[in-house]
Amino acid sequence: MDGFVNIVEQGVRVGLHAREPGDMQAWDSVVGHHQGLTNIMPLFRRDVKRLVTEPIYELHRNGIVHGMMVSYGNIVVATKAWNYLFSIVDWADDRAKQKVTDPDPFTWSGLVRSLQKNEAERQALESWEPGPSDSSDSRWAGDELVVAANEYLELWHRQNYGHLVQYLQLSARKRLGKGAPAELRRNYSDHPLSGFEVLSIDRRAPAIAVVHMRLLTSEREEVVEDRWIYEDEEGNPRVSGTGSGSWVRLFDGCPL
Q1: Residues 6+ apart with CB under 8 A from 181
Q2: Considering the chain, what percentage of its residues have pLDDT values greater than 90?
Q3: pLDDT in tens, 124-160
C-alpha cells in the first residue's frame, strides 16, 4: 500500500504511512464515507512504543512493520489489510477521474439556459409536447426514445458491448475513451439478458425521461427505472423531437 500510493502520485513521492487523512479523500467512492479510509488512517499511522505479544485485530502498520506487534497473523487483520488495499485502489481511480474535465453538472436552470440559446430552440421549447407514455398510444412503436431503448436492450441481449457505447453520454465516452467497450463488458457480462420489454416512459422534461423496463435474466425478472437524456453531438441537452440530438442514458452503469 505504501508503494502503490507512491507510484500513483509520483510527483508527491510520499507513502501511505506518511500521508494525512485529508490527502486520501475520494469523493466518487465509498472511500469518502465518514467511517471509511480517512477514519481508520490515524490507527494505521499510530506509533507503537512497546512490545505487544497478545493477539491484535487492528491493522497497526507501524507496530507490525517495526516488529513491535508480533501476533497479527489472523484472518481479521488479513481481511482488513485486503479491504484497505481495495480502498487505496478506489482512491487511485478517483484521482484519475478528477483529472478528466467533464461538462458542467446538470441543473434544471442550466438546461433551460442551454435550450434558449437561439430562437429555434426557444420556439421548440415552447411548443414541446410529451411523447407517448405506453404502448396504448398509436405513436409508441415509432417514437424515437422507444426505438433507442429497444435498440439498447437488444445490444445488451446480444452482448454487443462495442455498439452499446453509443448509448453512453458524451462525457462518459470521453472519460472511458478506448476502454469503454471493456468497461461495459465488466459492468454487464454478469447480467446477460434472456428477455426484455419497454413498459412505459415518464417524460419529465423536454430533454429528460425515465424509461420503465422489464428485464429478464436466467436468475430473476425485475422492473427498473432508467434515466435518459436527449443531447447533441457536443453533449448539450436539447429539446427532444426536434432532430437536434439523440437519446442516451444518463448513467453508464448496468441498471440491474
Answers
A1: 161, 162, 164, 165
A2: 46
A3: 888 888 899 999 999 999 999 999 999 999 999 999 9
Q: Higher confidence at residue 28 or residue 58?
A: 58
For residue 31, the tally of other CB atoms under 10 A from its CB is 21
Give 223's strand partners. 214
What are the cell numbers at 253? 452503469
Q: CA Rg, the chain, in Å?
A: 24
Alpha helices in the chain, H assignment, sequence order: 2-8, 37-45, 61-65, 75-98, 108-115, 119-127, 144-157, 161-164, 170-176, 180-188
**Cβ of 122: how many Cβ atoms within 10 Å?**
13
Strand 246-249: give its sheet, edge to edge.
Answer: 195-205, 208-216, 221-231, 246-249
Neighbours of 161 (CB within 10 A): 19
Q: Find the mean pLDDT for residues 73-95.
A: 84
What single string gives the DSSP state of each residue in 180-248?
Answer: HHHHHHHHHTTS--SEEEEEEEEEEETTEEEEEEEEE-SS-EEEEEEEEEEE-TTS-B--TTSSS-EEE
pLDDT tier for residue 33 given thresholds of 50, 70 and 90? very low
Kindly list the structural domains of the chain, giving each domain's residue range(s) and its CATH number in brackets, ordered by start: 2-98 (no CATH), 108-249 (3.10.450)
- The b/e string for 132-154 (b: 16+ C-beta within 10 A; e otherwise) is beeeeeeebeebebbebbbebbe
